[in-house]
Amino acid sequence: MNSSSYLVLMHYPTVDRAGKVITSAITALDVHDFSRLARTYGLGGVFVQTNLPKQMELMERLLGHWIGGRGGEANADRKFALECMAFAPTLDDVVAEVSARHGTPPQIAMTSARDVGVIIKSFAETRESLEKSKQPFLLLFGTASGLAPEVVEKCDWVIEPIGTPTDYNHLSVRSAASISVDRLFG
Amino acid sequence: MNSSSYLVLMHYPTVDRAGKVITSAITALDVHDFSRLARTYGLGGVFVQTNLPKQMELMERLLGHWIGGRGGEANADRKFALECMAFAPTLDDVVAEVSARHGTPPQIAMTSARDVGVIIKSFAETRESLEKSKQPFLLLFGTASGLAPEVVEKCDWVIEPIGTPTDYNHLSVRSAASISVDRLFG
Question: Could you give the domains of chain A?
Fold first, then answer.
């Protein structure tokens, strides 16, 4: 199941802290961390989604250093990690690409630190349904203050918040993704 | 046990990919991610260690924005997270500070992606010994290509590598810390 599961790092539509819909900026370090995480757990890959072509161009230029350039020559492990990463302008494009690769459309879930009011499965329940499923799987992560409601509606389910011993739950998207992947695919 | 456990993010002595001892540069995002992680799991705090006073000064200036400045006014959750963070020039200073806070010296462990040849405990064994222990606990993380041998010698034990389904194990320090903390303190 790991090799047919993908991480999708979403930048639009996300919301800011006031709940307004925005496009968040891509953080270069996220792209590295997500790719290294996906390769370490043997996942199918990472999609970095943004609706801004200029952001994609900039990132492709930066990542060219690691994939086709001197960075990749000096650090083959990083090159290998980043080769599992692709850009996509919309979630629908990601769905189309993964459907084409696997011959069947993916199931979609997201994690959320907040209760977003749709069907919720625990990490254990999610793991169990992935083990039984014959479909590929997309795990969405929102940047900024989270995913806009129209993305939530496209999910088959939402994974429970990462339970912790405190009321404070403000993990970075890098931490949340790492913990979620370890719980689901470790 | 969580509130007497500390994360220590080490920048010296670390090694580069050729095994040469270096001081790595502090990554601002690491400081944020580690602080948010420590607060989410109710840990005692985070020590960012570097032997370079100029690096500490620079970081204190940047973090002043979040703790005493406008960033903190706008984002109280981030202010709260970063308030659990302290700088230290050496590991011995961290040990002295934590010993003073708790009236007894800490046990020290590190995680390693490589086999470093000292006593190894699994995550489950580490969790079990922390539950029984009356001492505080330091969990060390190396930046660059890992901690220098002289740091390894100061550890009471090393925690097993984060086992994954692949041979590729090149997680970022942010991912490794997140997964380790979730396994030990979740």
Answer: 2-185 (3.40.1280.10)
